[in-house]
Amino acid sequence: MRGTFAAIAARYDIANHLLSGGLDFFWRARVARLVAAARPERILDLATGSGDLAVVLQSACPAATVVGADFCLPMLERARRKNLRFLVHADGLDLPFADAAFDAVTVAFGLRNMASWESALREIARVLRPGGLAVVMDFSLPSSAPIRAAYRIYLHRVLPVAAGCVTGRPDAYRYLGESIEKFPSGPAMVALLDSCGLVPGRPQPMCFGVVSLYPATRPEAAGIGRLDGREFAAELETINLCRNP
Predict the structure, then answer these.
(1) Which residues pair with 45 in a beta bridge?
(2) Three-state secondary structure along 143-185?
(3) How far apart are CA 204 and CA 110, in angstroms?
(4) What ranges do the domains of the chain cover?
(5) Structure pTM?
(6) Closest by Cα among 102, 97, 74, 86 to 12
(7) Rounded to an integer, what distance in angstroms lies between the CA atom of residue 54 and that of residue 44?
(8) Distance, CA of 164 to chain centre
(9) Could you tell me which CATH number the domain at 2-139+187-238 has?
C-alpha cells in the first residue's frame, strides 16, 4: 500500500480533482466546517496524504495547531510544499502521540486503506481528549439501487481507465473500487465506531451517498484529562517531524 501511494504521489492531487469533478473541494470544506464548529486548539489529520484537508483545516481554524500524519514519505513531501508546519511520518495503527493529545482528529479517505480499521479507530480514540471530535470521511455506496448500479459501473470500469491516463497507474484505482465495496458504511460504520470506544453521531451522506461523513466523540472519563500545552509542545519537538522528508 505504501508503494502504491508513493508511485502516484506526484499526480495524486490532480487525479483527485479531475476524477471527483472538483467535488473533493466541497467534501473537504464540509469536514472543515464541522471541525471548526468544535473550536479545537489541536487537530490531527491522520492519513493526511498530500495535505489537502490539513490545509483547509488550518484555514478554517487559524488559531489551531494542525498536525498531518501519514505513513508515505513521498506524500508528505507533497504536503510539505503546501507550507504545513507540522508533518509526521507515522503509522496510523501505532501513533507517536500521547493519550488525549488532540481536540479533534480527522481521517479522510484513509481509514479504508489501513490494515486494521479497528486498530486505527482505537488509536484515534486514544489520542483524542475526552469530549473531543473525530471525523471519518470516506467513500460509500449509494442506497438507491439505480444510482448504486451506475456508480459501480463508473467505479470499476471508467475510473481505472481515466485514472490510469492521469497517473500511469490504473492498478491503484482498480484497488480503489475493490476497497470501497468492502468498506463498512452507514449503520455498519456506526457500529464499528461504537465498538472502538467512540460515540458515533449521525452519518452524513453526500452526493447521493457516494461519500459519507461520520462524526464521533470520545466519551468523557473520570481521571482522564487533556494533555497540557507544554507537554504537547515538547512532544512535537521529539517526534519524527517531516519538515524536510
Answers:
(1) 68, 106
(2) CCHHHHHHHHHHHHHHHHHHHHHHHCCHHHHHHHHHHHHHCCC
(3) 17
(4) 2-139+187-238
(5) 0.89
(6) 74
(7) 8
(8) 23
(9) 3.40.50.150
Residue burial 19-44, b: 16+ Cβ < 10 Å; e: rest: beeeebeebbebbbebbbebebebbb
Separation CA 129–CA 19 (nearest Å): 36
Radius of gyration of the chain from Cα atoms? Answer: 17
For every one of its 245 residues, what pLDDT tens digit does the chain have, with 9 covering 90 and above?
Answer: 555 555 455 556 676 677 788 899 999 999 999 999 999 999 999 999 999 999 999 999 999 999 999 999 988 998 999 989 899 999 999 999 999 999 999 999 999 999 999 999 999 999 999 999 999 999 999 999 999 999 999 988 887 787 777 677 666 667 788 899 999 999 999 999 999 999 999 999 999 999 999 999 999 876 677 888 888 888 787 775 554 33
- In our burial notation (b when 16+ CB lie closer than 10 A, e otherwise), range 76-91 reads bbbbbeeebebbbbbb
